[in-house]
Amino acid sequence: MTHNTALYKVPGGKLIRVDVTCSDRIEQVRITGDFFLHPEETLEALEAALTGVPLPLDRAALAARLAAILTQQEATLFGATPEDLVAALTAAIIQA
Amino acid sequence: MEPLRLIPYRHFDAYTNMALDEAIMESVRAGRSAPTVRLYGWTPSAISIGYFQGLHYEVNLAACRAAGVDVVRRLTGGGAVYHDTAGEVTYSLIAPERLYPRDILASYRIICGYVVEALRELGLEAEFQPINDIAVGGRKISGNAQTRRGGVLLQHGTVLYRVDVETMFSLLTVSEVKVSDKVIQSVKKRVTSLAEYITAPREALIVALEHAFSRGQAVERGDYTPAELARAAALAETKYRTEAWIALR
Question: Domain residue spans in chain A?
């Protein structure tokens, strides 16, 4: 298993950092940063959705899944989009 | 409609400040307190980090310890903020969520609007910059952050009276960015403070904020209740000062 972290600057937005541990799948992921997410607990649901995802990532499908969670939980993410979260995750995985 | 409780400026330590916000959210939620605006400062100076930030990624804890600067995690998202005792004034607005638009950006616009008005009263051409900033001449003078929990909205923000970029940098981590002169100059270009425009003392900012938050509504100058102060003291010890909370992420 490998572990890495990447810092991703959203153009015109906030900073997202992803810490990821992976094997042939994502074993553990932690998202931190200066974004806003309402309600805040939604982050746990987003991280849970990313855990266990096999590699290589299907980026479009993953972004759609995160977007669906936001809609389902009536959540608002400021300073980043689901695509940005996936881009940050990809950056971390590539370096892991 | 219930008058707004306006609690005049006082300073507290960082843990008590965050605990007071939560204690007042509880009392507003329970209907024991009216919607509240409080103005405050931070003694000692402190760094507050956003709810989602990674403590060790953002803060140089050794430098903070050496400088006697407290480190606290907020209930609200957003970035790392340096609260200089003599360099800024902070406000918190705590109210039932139903009094503000459901749309979060719309509510930021309204509440930041009070701060914009205060700065304009002081002669600055301040503007709201979505999502959560206020700027003068395109340079940030106020950062704001909001959370909504259990039907209660908390928005707090700092308004910069005087900013010390070098000190701020020494307390935050620099893992990704070399703290060169160039970087410091670049930050100074993006951030401003009241002292760059007028010679008035910090008290003038406090007065202007009181005026702005009072305008157009019934306001009662009040104080923290003994129950709120006691609850805040407990929360400061059991939550805000704890490793479990500070190092949540």
Answer: 2-95
DSSP B175-203: SSS---HHHHHHHHHHB--GGGT----HH
- Show residues of chain B in contact with A14, CB under 8 Å: 79
- Class at the top of the CATH hierarchy for domain B4-246: alpha beta
Between positions 51 and 80 of A, the ones with CB within 8 A of B are 76, 78-79
pTM of the model: 0.95
Domain A2-95 sits in CATH at 3.30.390.50
**Could you give the ipTM of this predicted complex?**
0.95
* Predicted confidence pLDDT, tens digits, chain A (96 residues): 899 999 999 987 889 999 999 999 999 999 999 999 999 999 999 999 999 999 999 999 999 999 999 999 999 999 999 999 999 999 999 876
Nearest CA in chain B to A30: B249
Q: Among positive and negative, which fits the CA dihedral B73, B76, B82, B85?
A: negative
